[in-house]
Amino acid sequence: MNNITPYSSPHYFIYLLLLLLPIIIGLWFGKRFRTYDFFATVVILITAFFGGNMSQGISLLCYVLLEIILVSIYLAYRKKHNSFWIFTMFVLLAIIPLVFVKLDPLLQNPTISLFGFMGISYLTFKSVEIIMEIRDGVIKELSPYEFGRFLLFFPTITSGPIDRFKRFQKDVNNVPSREEYVELLHSGVDKLMKGLLYKFIIGYFFGTLLLPKVQILAMSYKGQTPLGLSWWVLAYMYVYSMYLFFDFAGYSLFAVAISNFMGIKTPMNFNAPFKAKNIKDFWNRWHMTLSFWFRDFIYMRLMFTIIKHKWIKNRVTIADLGYITLFLIMGFWHGETWYYIVYGIFHAIAMITNDAWLRYKKKHRESIPSNKFTHAFAVFLTFNIVCFSFLIFSGFLNTLWFS
Amino acid sequence: MDEITTKIVDILQDVTGLDDAGQDKDQDLFKDGVLDSMATVEVLVNLQDEFDITVPVSEFDRSQWSTVNKIAQQVQELE
């Protein structure tokens, strides 16, 4: 038996819905069965993490235990004191397991990533959120059980969307009324169907059928033309972008749909990202729970600290520095390869350029036309810039040029 | 409450440079583009200094801070 990646095949859903049935019946009659919820979580965790050689499962358990201990100690500390350095130390301790996992491929030393398991990034986002909100005084009480339940909420455990603790608590401690629940079931079924279409039909078409063929054609120009460039590289860019969107948006729809069946309104990850009219707009529509996490816990905090201490006076400089920091961290988070880092820098430059353009536009509002053609051009330009960034992100250029 | 509201409107006008910012106490400041991330942070820093409160920078639920009246209510609760 191997580990079963959640939502990876259509028949996973049959077993999953069977497992969910008692939860759905319970909610229909206005009840939450805590013990059964716990049981269902254990079943999913076992199939997802203990199916193979158990190393993933053991890593997961050690990781969760470590985070629970850290959060409990920090909570107890924060009730009496509030030092910036202690806070920073706890944030660093909370992300150490993730840092090890990310550095692992670089060091080629498999023993270092003691905590390697699928979804460690997403659990780390949640843990860091909790520590930061304890620091801010937003979270004053938190039992290990509540924290564990938030971390291990199984519909989103491997790849998000990244929920927020207070929002999650509001849903999980509440039983929706019959009307609300009918609404949730309805939206859940819609999202499930749309997700199946996205991931297993459109995503499959682009990713499994088209992408390998385009890749072979693009690779055939290697060494034949300058930098191996050909029209097929452009084709690869668009096909990969479509695959990336439909595969991940499909997965995210599943996670939200299953959450809905359990009476939890997990936030959506995508909102028609290819309709974005500029790059800022794009990040408000693409992998939203991640970009909002970075916005709230990195960008806003950094801006706040710089402005409060008056380290830098110029607003534009502060904002630009914020973008560079945010996207560099996002690049390193994706993985320690040149193309993830370049992807991050590329988006930071795009954001800075976009801000500069918006400032220019504000000053010269009368002389710059704004109509449906300029809007269509803006959407077209943004789409192509985004697809180009995904070409960098895909690592295909690395294969084409260096391997 | 009125005193708080006046101070908030002053802060909004200082930060955005718009003379009419916050005139309508129920205007949605985020939706209408009065505040972007940067301006939001500046408003928060000013609120913190002015009212001597600790604002939650990250768990910044925008729907609860979206109008002058809502900001005034939050400030009162945090004071």
Automatic annotation (TrEMBL), chain A:
Domain of life according to the entry: Bacteria
Subcellular location: Cell membrane
Known pathway: Cell wall biogenesis; lipoteichoic acid biosynthesis
E.C. numbers: 2.3.1.-
InterPro entries, A to Z: Ac/AlaTfrase_AlgI/DltB, DltB, MB_O-acyltransferase, MBOAT_fam
Chief localisation class: membrane
Record's bilayer topology term: Multi-pass membrane protein
Alphabetical keyword list: Acyltransferase, Cell membrane, Membrane, Transferase, Transmembrane, Transmembrane helix
Residue ranges of the TM segments: 12-29, 36-52, 58-77, 84-101, 107-125, 196-218, 238-258, 316-334, 340-358, 379-402
Pfam family, one: MBOAT
First-tier enzyme category under EC: transferase
Cited function: O-acyltransferase that catalyzes D-alanylation of both teichoic acid and lipoteichoic acid (LTA). D-alanylation of LTA plays an important role in modulating the properties of the cell wall in Gram-positive bacteria, influencing the net charge of the cell wall. Catalyzes D-alanylation from DltC carrier protein.
NCBIfam families: LTA_dltB
Protein family per UniProt: Belongs to the membrane-bound acyltransferase family.
Protein name (Swiss-Prot/TrEMBL): Teichoic acid D-alanyltransferase
Record organism: Companilactobacillus huachuanensis
Gene: dltB
TrEMBL record, chain B:
Subcellular location: Cytoplasm
Record's function text: Carrier protein involved in the D-alanylation of lipoteichoic acid (LTA). The loading of thioester-linked D-alanine onto DltC is catalyzed by D-alanine--D-alanyl carrier protein ligase DltA. The DltC-carried D-alanyl group is further transferred to cell membrane phosphatidylglycerol (PG) by forming an ester bond, probably catalyzed by DltD. D-alanylation of LTA plays an important role in modulating the properties of the cell wall in Gram-positive bacteria, influencing the net charge of the cell wall.
Keyword Cytoplasm: yes
Residue ranges of domain Carrier in the record: 2-79
Organism name: Companilactobacillus heilongjiangensis
Gene Ontology MF, one: D-alanyl carrier activity
Assigned protein family: Belongs to the DltC family.
PROSITE patterns: CARRIER (PS50075)
GO annotations of cellular component type: cytoplasm
Gene (UniProt): dltC
Protein name as catalogued: D-alanyl carrier protein
Keyword Cytoplasm applies: yes
Post-translational modification: 4'-phosphopantetheine is transferred from CoA to a specific serine of apo-DCP.
